[in-house]
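Structure, all three chains, one model.
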Amino acid sequence: MTKRILLYATLTLGAFVAVFPYLLVVLTAFKTQGQLNSTEPWVPGLPPTTANLTKLLGGEFPRYLLNTVVMTALLTLGQLVFTTFAAYAFARLRFRGREVLFWLYVATMMVPSAVTMIPLFLIMRELGLVNTWYGLLAPYVLGTPYGIFLMRQFFRALPAGLEEAARIDGAGPLKILTRILLPLCRPAIGTLTIITVISSWNSFLWPLIITSGDETKVMTVALATLNVGIGVDYNLIMAGGLIALVPMIAIFIFFQKYIVRSVVLTGLK
Amino acid sequence: MRSPRIRELRHAVTLLAAATLTLTACGSGGGGDTGGDGKVTLTYRLWDDQQKVGYDKVMAAFEKANPTIDVKIELMPYDAYWTKLTADAVAGTAPDVFWMTPSQFPEFVTKGVLADISPLKLDATKFHPTVVGSFTYQNKLYGVPKDWGIVGLLYNKDLFKKAGVEMPASLTWEPDGSGTFLETARKLTVDQAGKHPEDPGFDPAKVKTYGFASWNHYQTQWMNWVASNGGKLLDQPFGKYTFNDDASVQALRFGVDLVNKYHVSPPATQTNPPTGKITDMFKAGEVAMFPANNALLPYVAPEANFEVGVALMPEGPAGRAVNLNGLSEAVYAKSKHPQEAMKLAAYLGGEEPQKLMAADGYIFPALNGLTQGYVDYWQKTKKIDVSPFVEESKGTTFPLPVTTGFTGFETKLNQIFNEMYLGKLDPKQAADQAVTEGNATVK
Amino acid sequence: MRVRRRRDWHAYLFIGPSLLGVIAFLLLPMVIVFVLSFFHWELLSPPSFAGLDNYRRLAGDGESWHSLGITVVYVLLCIPLQTVLALVLALLLNQRIKGVKVFRSLFVVPWMATPIVMGLVWNWIFDPRDGAINSALAVIGVTGPDWLSDATWALPAVALVNVWQYTGYNMLFFLAGLQGIPRELYDAAATDGATPRQRFWRVTLPLLNPTMFFVMVTNLIGAFQVFDTVFVMTDGGPSQSTEVINFKIFGTAFREFDFGYASTLSMLLFAVILAVTLVQVRFFGKRTTYDMS
């Protein structure tokens, strides 16, 4: 019993630390500028106001949210398909150059994107993709080394010999992947989905560099424009932060059931 | 259990294919600059969310007068504006007309990104000379003067009333601490026990309200002390830094003393950039006098819990000298539509749009004689008399030190002066170090 | 041999789309950066060949080596703490207890929140006078440090924010990894009379090896490139105490417009990360369990 209380106390404390900064965002989103100036950040402003939310949602912001939804959906779809294919090949198929290619993929993560961004931008200009949806999506939609690495690790953790029986039955690699391996990889796919959705949703630097018009403007870039250097409208920007997070929590709760297949024994009982 | 999953996968692939097709369809629309009807589309880039509202109107008027030109406004976040502009300049995809600041100007003009606007035959004498000077390179003007912002002394009238202090007709400061400015700041500084800095038992660690905000901000702070003490920031435009001369160091010391010796200003731990929150402290009524650029007004005034006043900046031994910082409408040197871009820039420098931006309370126009619209706006809508800003602009004003390498030097300069305001580095040492580092970056 | 060929063909088809993307959008830019490290390029004017100039400059550039040193300290502050916390959290939240789903969701909030907003909030929290941390410390009678304006505390503060942001995120991978461990192994261990502690060290940890490998490699790659937090919280200060290498690279490229040298610095960082990764490959390679190769 004391063990249980201790467990909950630890979890509650941890969760408080995790959520506290965000609590300030929520509280600020519901304050007027006057209340923001006269209260501590962790004290709610009374009476709460929804003016910031309605002001933001009444402007162009919903349009940028929609753009973000489209971008996130396409990137997630593309990544799920292509990442899974590539990771499967790297983990469970033998072919010449496998290790070299894989580590080449990983190596591309080791150079800062602030620097590779300029050559990439020039490549995009050559391809005529500057200021287009294609340019926005292209670098990520075909699968990322990060996602491929993640899925490869999960595929590798599956017991060897899983494929043997199916192979004897004449099943091809695609069939083995979809019929045998994927059903065993639900937690991994759930994880991949969540991280792809959320990282696409929050992506900032690339959308900002490759596009500049309203047609492709995403939520993060729109939020950043509320900080104009000389001043920041805290209430409005926090309201934006709140609006941006709510769908992500919903997504997480939805996909959470895929992450955890069932309850298993752990080492801590 | 398994087959539905495959169906899901197939759905996914179908969806993806459909999406790709849709994109192909819309992708082709966005690329071309010239539409089928012979119209030219110009891009105009800025970073201010609030001013964009005004420019929507301005551009609508321009398009009406020039039916063959469309203008697309692009709003960028300020921090990323320069990264994006650099990437665009490298790739040759920069906007046709865009905002430029004095501190970024040297880099972009010396590398040929900005177009010489002399073909417009603009009468430069019609604009504020400090703004014109900020965008002049080798005697040529590279950019149409757009607006200016000037540093004035914002103050909290409620705190003055509560302390029973009148704002003197003119504030003066001297390096030795005499003058009406420090005296006023002292009267307004109160600790939790109700004591002022000169009272015995005053506790600088428990101050309730500070009389003044002295902090490490070059534009609104120490450069103004330096200039009003007869110090010199730069030997000449595009030249070398000189703010380690005696007069400058004396002025820097005064700024630091306001914090660490006279205790009329919050400690640097709370105000140092990039996270300093002096603006928030002023808004919260913890600081009585706060030098700020008039461009900050929209972020301070609308919902302030107190009455905001504007006063003239303090006069130093060399009189009053305040920073006046202007923006310009730059034309991209490699614009695909140079004639139309020039036409737009010329239009933006004209009376009609500059008047509109002033009358809606966004900015003081660079074009002379139009300040009244801005003054009226703030008087009518927010009951704030902003005329001291105008008065200052007619006196001695100085631009930011315009020289190459400043963008790289700025981070280091702020770091060195952060230490100075913390009291960890003597002003003389700090100035010497900053000038040495700075001059190493001048190309 | 013929069978092998056929399977090769399949494999290339599977990796094909990603290979296309990696070559065009990741590898090519990287190669260009490598080439540019041998050039002088002020971004807005044409590049000129510099031979080994940039590398010679790097050898004598104390500030850059200082930045690299700071980055190493930062990595050491972040990674162990973050990894252990994430693993413990995953173990705690992999149990059959009430409210586990709620807790899981709460712990990933830091990573889901828009970074733009979080920087502003953390600056409030670290305020030395009325920030949440020092206000809380004052309650128990401790005077907190000046955090972001104190050269000793600024880097730990930045590290703390990153630990806060990524602990819940890494927990996700461990959770998924724990799910992949076959139940029978625990049953077998229990039958053999293994204590919970033994089960953790002999079953859980070895079988989490593939996950751990991924988490360590990617987190180290990320930590060596930390940038955003520094950019919004300290701008490299005070006294360059948080001027991590990636911040230095950004400044060199976009504030000093010295892209050639920024490319050289990127190559230095690349070499360091590559070395650290290779060490991990050897370390984890020795300890692989039942994976195929």
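Chain B touches chain C at residues 82-83, 86, 89-90, 107-108, 111-113, 268-270, 272-275, 277, 405, 407-408, 410-411, 414-415, 418-419, 422, 441 (CB under 8 Å).
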